[in-house]
Write a structure and sequence with these properties.
Number of strands: 13
Distance between the termini: 34 Å
Largest sheet: 7 strands, parallel
Oligomer: single chain
Order of helices and strands: EHEHEEHEEHEEHEEHEEHHHEHH
Strand order of the largest sheet: 3-2-1-4-5-7-11
Shape: globular
Helix content: 25-40%
Structural class: alpha/beta
Length: 306
């Protein structure tokens, strides 16, 4: 297959490119050719800008994972604009290119995040809990919800031209990127503990399962629409903290009060103090089998590789 991937040098993108490299012809959208060649090898085609394309004719699939990391920096107005437009602009352009193609790629897989659900600590959310085609809910004011709602709507503009799959990604567990990498040092130093009330949901997924789910959607032409990119066993922050401490053989008795986190991170603290219990209903119904359905198994597998 000839596959165009955006976000190919990111935490998940790198793993996806490596998984696809052996049997596919990969083109990577990147502004840093040097970084892409260094991290992914020189065998892949590189594309500096989507403006170089007038259509997507010639590609068999597009996987869209581009976006400024949402939790790397404090949410200043400038940073919010980067987060939004790094997702919205590329996704909008890709949908335009799909619709301009005489022979469009057969599938468009586009990232999103479970932040679209807003704060829900009291019940489990399945993929159908928020469907853009059925909801026009102006009551949500959370930044993450607004980012994802627009992001998904732009991807769905290609639905008349191709099969669209949107993956609402949760907390991705891996040692080389994402939230877990940032959490490891304080936990290893014995400074880990519950955040806020500890009751907020943490919907996680092992990095291998996220890559596996994307590949599953790529090759199963009956799959379209919204898919939660989370493991089938979400946990509370309290239980996550205990499990991580156990995996690292470290104590977890230093809590992080909500007020302190608000002072330190500002609005960004919402990502840690609020949460969701998200269930991958449609992925399981479609037949995807998780390699790591339990948190303890996922963490144990990762710690073996340290």
């Amino acid at each position: 297959m000839k596959i165009l991937i955006t976000g190919g040098t990111g935490f998940i993108g790198r793993q996806l490119v490596n998984a696809l490299s052996a049997d596919n012809d990969i083109t990577i959208l990147t502004r840093s050719a040097g970084k892409a060649h260094l991290e992914l090898g020189r065998q892949h085609r590189l594309l500096g800008n989507l403006s170089a394309l007038s259509s997507l004719d010639g590609f068999d699939a597009v996987i869209n994972l581009a976006g400024e990391p949402i939790a790397d920096k404090r949410w200043t107005l400038e940073q919010k604009q980067k987060i939004c437009h790094s997702r919205w602009d590329i996704t909008a352009r890709l949908s335009q290119l799909f619709n301009a193609s005489q022979h469009p790629p057969s599938v468009f897989i586009s990232g999103s995040a479970i932040g679209i659900y807003g704060n829900h600590d009291d019940h489990t959310l399945i993929d159908e809990s928020f469907d853009l085609t059925q909801h026009n809910d102006a009551s949500h004011t959370d930044f993450a919800h607004r980012v994802c709602t627009r992001w998904e709507a732009l991807a769905l503009e290609a639905a008349n031209s191709t099969r669209v799959c949107i993956v609402r990604i949760g907390l991705v567990l891996g040692l080389n990127g994402g939230a877990l990498k940032k959490m490891l040092l304080p936990f290893k130093m014995g400074g880990g503990g519950i955040i806020g009330s500890g009751k907020q949901g943490m919907s996680w997924i092992h990095q291998a399962d996220l890559v596996g789910l994307i590949l599953f959607l790529l090759h199963n032409d009956k799959c379209s629409g919204i898919f939660n990119g989370t493991a089938p066993n979400p946990v509370s922050n309290k239980d996550f903290t205990k499990a991580l401490g156990k995996a690292l053989h470290r104590p977890t008795f230093l809590p992080m009060p909500a007020m302190a986190l608000n002072i330190a991170l500002g609005e960004l603290s919402q990502l840690l103090l609020e949460g969701q219990y998200v269930y991958p209903n449609r992925a399981l119904e479609a037949g995807y089998q998780f390699t790591y359905p339990q948190l303890s198994e996922a963490l144990a597998a990762l710690m073996q590789n340290q």
